[in-house]
Amino acid sequence: MLLNQQLVQQFVSQAVMYGDYEVEDAIYIQNQLIRILNASGIDNTSIATLNESATANEITQYWIQNAVDQNCIEDVLYQREIVEAQILDLITPRPSVVNREFNKAYKVSPEAATDYFYTLSKRNHYVKEDAIAHNINYDVETEYGDIEITINLSKPEKDAQQIAQAKEAPSSDYPQCALCVENEGYVGSVLQAARSNHRIVHLMLGNQRWAFQYSPYAYFNEHSIVLSESHVPMKINQQTFVNLLDFIDQFPHYFIGSNADIPVVGGSILSHNHYQSGKYVFPMDNAAEVENFKIVEYPSIQASTLNWPMSVIRLKSTKKNELIEAATYVMNQWNQYTDEAVAIRAYSNKGERHHTVTPIARYRHQQYELDIVLRDNQTSEQYPDGIFHPHKDVQHIKKENIGLIEVMGTAILPGRLKQELRQVKRYLLGESQLDIGVHQQWAEKMLQNYDISSSNVDQIVDNEVGYKFKRVLEDAGVFKNTDQGQQAFSRFINSL
């Protein structure tokens, strides 16, 4: 394989413009490209097939496909990703430079700093805008306001060859997990993601060292991860509230929240303490306040419940330290709270803790806001997956844990639904011989409830998926939106 000279020059110009290189480094960059792509040299005769405005990423994808076609690299997803990250690392400044430029931009404004880092992360294809664009997104109106549906199609699935290679590969504990700071610049393997072009910004939160990075497959605008520089387990305690509001002080244009810290109601990575943040307004942010109340110990704090399928207490104040204390008090009260009348139990007979919270922080209307979502991870014979987890009749749409993003009203649904919902629509339009598997009962109910035609089937199914997700959230709510449930919620509030 020979690299086209014109494309090499185009890439080199971008490496000089955006990376750590100067014009005199052109031959060095050229030779790095030859090495990474396993090419044999440079072609000075052919005409480039990409236009002169092609981005470094577009040139990279073109080279990778050529390298695969000519057997210079193996046609396996992880090998493609390793090569891509190594090439695009050439247009990415070193970590020290990224941090210096971020801090320099921060002196202009916090938003200028995140704009700098986010632009860099998109340019070097760490944030994969092209893949994210494949996601299916729409809103559904409910009695709680609009909720958001996302069918996640952005993350490529591993092929059979990669799965087989991963099975045979020796395990490694470096980096210890996908969130560890040791991923920055890590080449990757069949078991671990390619991270040569990955960068993090270092922060101090609560007098502790933390790191800030963007998510490659974002679920919302400027989706970012804030992670402990130490590989320590998820933990929701007073320090969590300190850290969240410290972050809000530094980046008031972002929200930040944490997944819960125990199984069933927790996130996908419980082994590494981390939060999620971004520049986004979620449906829950706009949920109406239902009942305003005072916490006896903290009378200056504004407290309210929300019109939301999950059980949320919103605390607001201009006084950060008092808000932290009030949030800690609410969390501690909940962690010890039992109400047998509605199957809420803080501990099992064996002493296992069942309660925690999902906290979300933001700065709005010149004051701090903390949303504290009450969580309970009990299981039972009737609900082996979780009493406050999506129940069996909605698991054909969503059966995974309900994490931070979904708590706030944005469904992250599995990519399998794209094809499955097409089949459901065909069935609804009369192709009754189709086997639609787990969606059969749902489809029959839609046929009973709607006069379905080719002109309305898409809207009906979209809405019904939204109603299923609403039910998912209601299942996860500890105090149900029924008379009995709301009376129980009032009992808890009275205990505060």
The residue-averaged pLDDT reads 94
Choose one word for the global shape.
globular
Beta strand count:
15
Q: Report the sheet-strand fraction.
A: 15-25%
Spatial order of the strands in the main sheet? 5-6-7-9-8-13-14-12-11-10
Low-confidence runs of at least 5 consecutive residues: none
Helix content: 25-40%
Structural class: alpha+beta
Biggest sheet statistics? 10 strands, antiparallel
Our Rg estimate from Cα atoms comes to: 25 Å
Q: Separation of termini?
A: 70 Å
Provide the succession of SSEs: EHHEHHHHHEEHEEEHEEEEEHEEHEHHHH
Number of helix segments?
15
Protein name: Galactose-1-phosphate uridylyltransferase
Family: Belongs to the galactose-1-phosphate uridylyltransferase type 2 family.
Subcellular location: Cytoplasm
GO molecular function, one term: nucleotidyltransferase activity
Please describe the topology of this protein:
Layout: E1 2-4, H1 5-18, H2 26-37, E2 41-43, H3 56-69, H4 77-88, H5 95-106, H6 110-123, H7 129-132, E3 136-142, E4 145-151, H8 160-168, E5 201-205, E6 208-214, E7 224-228, H9 238-250, E8 255-257, E9 274-278, E10 289-295, E11 298-306, E12 312-317, H10 320-335, E13 355-364, E14 367-376, H11 404-407, E15 410-413, H12 417-428, H13 440-449, H14 457-476, H15 483-495
Parallel strand pairs: 1-2, 4-15
Antiparallel strand pairs: 3-4, 5-6, 6-7, 7-9, 8-9, 8-13, 10-11, 11-12, 12-14, 13-14
Helix pairs in contact: 1-2, 3-4, 5-6, 9-10
Enzyme class: transferase
Pathway: Carbohydrate metabolism; galactose metabolism
Catalytic activity: alpha-D-galactose 1-phosphate + UDP-alpha-D-glucose = alpha-D-glucose 1-phosphate + UDP-alpha-D-galactose
